[in-house]
Amino acid sequence: MEKTVENRQQVLSPNQLLESWQGHRNLTRRVIVAFPENAFFEFSIGGMRPFAEMVKELLAIAEPGLREIVTGKTEVLDEHRDIGNTKAKFLQLWDESTEKINVLWDKMEEVDFQKEIMSFGQFPETVQSTLFYFIENEIHHRGQGYVYLRSLGIAPPLFYER
Prior knowledge:
This protein has about 160 residues and is mainly alpha-helical. It has 5 helices and 2 strands, in the order H-H-H-H-E-E-H. It has helices spanning about 15-35, 35-40, 50-70, 85-105, 125-150; strands spanning about 115-120, 125. Strands 1-2 form a two-stranded antiparallel sheet. A hairpin with a 3-residue loop joins strand 1 (about 115-120) and strand 2.
């Protein structure tokens, strides 16, 4: 029996992907909260950046990247912008970004997830692979944050409680 495209089951719906992504964002937020203020901006191991610098990168990628996918307008990847020097400001921007992702996601109905795009005018991929990159990059940096927290004697949030 030959299967047609119509008969195939989708592994993950767009809304399930968003739910998973937002679960990761919630966990990353809890990692930010777990850092002592000064360590968030200053602590590093083995030449890695402080966690605040990693979070700047995540803020520069997730919402602007999704906005680019939705609007088709190239965004500038600005991971070095001045966000401020308080963890509270980072958390405020994280929460605003999270809400903007939800609003943008509602506009994803018309987006072809297999469409080839040039993310930030530099990275050729499909919409789907670009979204997975956003998520995987966050997981990668959150893992670095876990190492920092453990080396500071702080138990990080449980990774499976998203």
